C-alpha cells in the first residue's frame, strides 16, 4: 500500500510502498487530518518526551471504513478513531483519561497511523460509527475532541478570550457560540481572524504587538475575562496573560509552542486564579462533538490534500496558509 513514512527528524515524509497491516481491526483509511502535533514530531520538538521509533507512519486524526465484520461493526461501516489506547487499569484510564495513562499508546505516534491506505486498530472500543463526508468528519477525531474538552463547563454568563486561530480554536469558537457565550478571539493572521468573525466571534483582536496581553489591553473593548484559552502556548501568548483574568478566572493552555508561564504568585493567590493544561479529551467528548457536527452547529473547515502532496500540506500548515484543517486523502 502507499504510505507517507516518517524516517528522519526535519526531513520531508517519504511516499513509498509499504506492507499492509495484517493484525487487529483493519480500516481502509478514508481521510486523516494533519495536526500541528505531527509537525512537532517531524521537527523533533518532542524527542525528549515521546520516544518515536522510525520508520513510522504518522496520522492520528482518522476516519476509516471497516473491512471485515468485527463485534458490532459491519463491513463498510464508517468510523471515527479515538486515538489513545491506555492500559485500562490505572486511575486515569478508569476516568476515561487515556491520554494521561503512563502506558498510553497513540495511533500515529507509538503505532502506525492514518497517512496510508490502511491502518490497524487494536480495539473496537475506540471506534465511533458515523455518517457523512469523511473529509469533513476527520477533524473531529483530534481537533474536535480537544476543542470540546477545552471549553467544557463554560456557560452563557462567561466572558471568554481565545488566543490563536488554528483548527482547534476555530472549532472551540463555534462550540462556544452554540451555547451563546460571548467570545473575543486574538491572533496574528488576519485571514483566519476574518474567518472567526464569519463563524460568530463577537470581537476579533489583531495582535500587532508581540505580547498578546498587551494587544488585548490596548485594542480590546474588554479588559478582563472569566476564561482565557491559549491555543498557541508560545512566549508571546503567555507573557502577562494572567492579568487578563477576572477574579476566580481560569487560564487553559492547549497549544504546545513551548513558551514559559512566568507569573507573580500573589496575582494567582489574591485573585484566586486557576491554571489548567488541556491535552486531547475523552471518547465521550468525541461522541458529543460528533453530535454537534450532525446537528449542523459546527463546521470542521477541511482543506483536502492528496497523500502524495502531504509535504506540501505540511509546508502550508507551517506557513499559516491553511484556514481550518488540512486533510490527507490516501
Ligand atoms: Zn493532534
Ligand atoms: Zn492506564
TrEMBL record:
Keywords for the protein's UniProt record, in alphabetical order: Carbohydrate metabolism, NADP, Oxidoreductase
A Pfam family that the UniProt record links to this protein: ADH_zinc_N
Residues annotated as domain Alcohol dehydrogenase-like N-terminal: 24-127
Presence of keyword Cell inner membrane: no
GO molecular function: adenyl nucleotide binding; anion binding; oxidoreductase activity
All residue ranges annotated as the Alcohol dehydrogenase-like C-terminal domain in the record: 167-292
A GO BP entry: protein tetramerization
Residues spanning the membrane: none
Entry-linked SUPFAM superfamilies: GroES-like, NAD(P)-binding Rossmann-fold domains
InterPro entries, per database record: ADH-like_C, ADH-like_N, GroES-like_sf, NAD(P)-bd_dom_sf, Zn_alcohol_dh
PANTHER family: D-ARABINOSE 1-DEHYDROGENASE (NADP(+)) (PTHR43401:SF4), L-THREONINE 3-DEHYDROGENASE (PTHR43401)
Protein name, UniProt field: Alcohol dehydrogenase
